[in-house]
Amino acid sequence: MNREGILNAVLASSLVLVPLWASLSGEIFAITLATKIAILALAGVGLNIALGQGGLVSLGHAVFFGLGGYAMGVLASHAQDFVPLLEWPFALDGTKSMPVIWITAILASSLAALVIGIISLRTSGVYFIMITLAFGQMFYYFTISWPAYGGEDGLPIYIRNSFPGLNTLVPLQFHFICLALLFAALVFSARLKTSPFGLALNAARQNGERVAASGIRPFDVRLWAFVISGAITGLAGALFADLNRFVSPVMFSWQTSGEIIIFVILGGVGRLFGPVAGAMLFIILEHFLGDFSEYWQIFLGLLLLAVILYSPGGIIGILAGREKSHV
Amino acid sequence: MSESILAVREIMKSFGAVPACRQVSIDLKKDEIHALIGPNGAGKSTLIKQICGDLAPDSGTIHFLGEDVTDLDVAMRARMGLGRSFQISSVISEFTVLQNIVLPILGKNGHVMRFFRPAFANQSCVDFARQVANRVALQDRLSVRAGDLAHGERRRLEIAMALALRPQAFLLDEPMAGMGPEGTKQMTGLLRELRSEAPILLVEHDMDAVFALADRISVLVNGEIIASGTVGEIRNNAQVRLAYLGEEE
Q1: Given A192, A194, A207, which is nearest B90 (Cβ)?
Q2: What's A139's DSSP letter?
């Protein structure tokens, strides 16, 4: 195994072992932190497909994160209030079932990514950033002004949703659900990278003209990548809402989009475990520096600056060196 | 017209008030090398871009393999077998040579929307890519990043990427540009071999290479084809000598 492989294994096992240790020693809060890391890393894994492999700097991934969150909020709130979601043309009840919520979150966010992608992928560079940001802000202000699901105050869900055969109220069990989904997304992302699709996507990032001359439409490849990317981030949003048992328009805010980008850049753009390393460092800094000072983001800013200036490969790049070609 | 692999008919293109192509018609027939020459700014690149699909003509048609491709995009024309090299080398620089060659094979086969199996697990695809690399003498450079190749090698990689499409026609935009005498000689030999694969529409400034290779030459000046004929005819054409060859010498 090369250095990056070892590093990845260390990161992955820490997300398994630390919560196990925390559970045995009664440090419940540490489990919650680890769960938060796993969920935010999952959102980052989604973005990393668009940003890292496809070079698409989306400042609108909060749309998908928020849609996932509201998919959970809307379905669960109807279930907890015993108010049907729809009465016409057919009766549809809310649900507290995680798998159903996840599928809804994935469908809603991929559909949004398809529409946003078709419009915004006609542009590139700074225009692409601005269009995706604009979509994010549209959703943000819409949820603020829409009173049905709490508006600006957000929407509390009193009991965590259920997963067949598990007790999701036990922090460790919920953690392993989130971790399993993160690992599944990482496996998918790794396979994607070496697949024909991944090859075309990585090529389109570097030279769209040459990809077209090779008989492949760069637009199509980027659009599919954007949809897959949005779907994964949407799933993370549903889990995040379940972790907090609360959804609010903040999930749609551009700060959320920015934080997901920070995970990816801090960890290492395009590196498989980049978002995991990035989210881990972010949450640890937030936790420990947050105790120390309200203005902990200043340190985050300095760190981000140092990474961008001195190690474009992020933490993974510092610790594992330049990426090896995967052939 | 039936033997024409590529048939450009009365293409017009202007940028604002500036005409770049005026009623240009040009053919590429089976087994030939058809050279397109002309001074800088004559509209060669604009014509090439319209044949590839980068630019849409204002009027006129382009037929490829008997089909009207005027409204098809670059990727569609490439999949039909229009293999291209660019005026300024255009490869995927972070990819290895082998990855670069595999890309058009995937495009041609329509295998791009496959998300799980590694591209390199497809043995027949990799074998074909190696064969293609052999033909352009890059077999020892397969795992080198394209960005690290020497200029001449990168030029040959572009030819390989065109070859990997199993092309019906080559569209080569100044393949000798920036090459030393040795590289030019090697490229001339390579192009001569390629002719058996598919006809070549060759834009080239190196007159020695053009005269050595071309079956026919068309001369583009100010967006118009002023002459078209065999090497001998073009050499002796007074108009061409005045407009173009005379200025060069």
Answers
A1: A207
A2: H
Q: What is the pLDDT along chain B (249 residues), one digit of tens a residue?
A: 457 899 999 999 999 888 889 999 999 999 999 999 988 888 898 999 999 999 999 999 999 999 999 999 999 999 999 999 998 889 999 999 999 999 999 999 998 989 988 999 999 999 999 999 999 999 999 999 999 999 999 999 999 999 999 999 999 999 998 888 888 999 999 999 998 899 999 999 888 889 999 999 999 988 999 989 999 898 888 888 777 655 544
Q: Collect all residues with Cβ–Cβ distance below 8 Å to B59 and sequence separation of at least 6.
A: B10, B11, B12
B217 in reach of chain A (CB within 8 A): no
Q: Which residues of A touch B (CB under 8 A)?
A: 191-192, 194-200, 202-203, 206-207, 209-217, 220-221, 224, 325, 327
Strands (E), B82-180: 82-85, 169-173
Contact between residue B173 and residue B87 where contact means Cβ atoms under 8 Å apart: yes
- Tokens read off for B197: 């694969």
What span, in angstroms and rounded, lies between the C-alpha atoms of B17 and A287?
Answer: 64
Asked if residue B97 lies in contact with residue B142, where contact means CB atoms within 8 angstroms, the answer is: yes
Domain assignments of chain A as residue spans, ordered by start: 54-251, 253-327
B184 Cβ partners below 8 Å, 6+ apart? B176, B206, B208, B209
The torsion angles phi and psi of B156, rounded to 5 degrees, stand at -70, -35
ipTM of the complex: 0.92
The distance in angstroms from the start CA to the end CA of chain A is: 15
| pTM listed for this prediction | 0.94
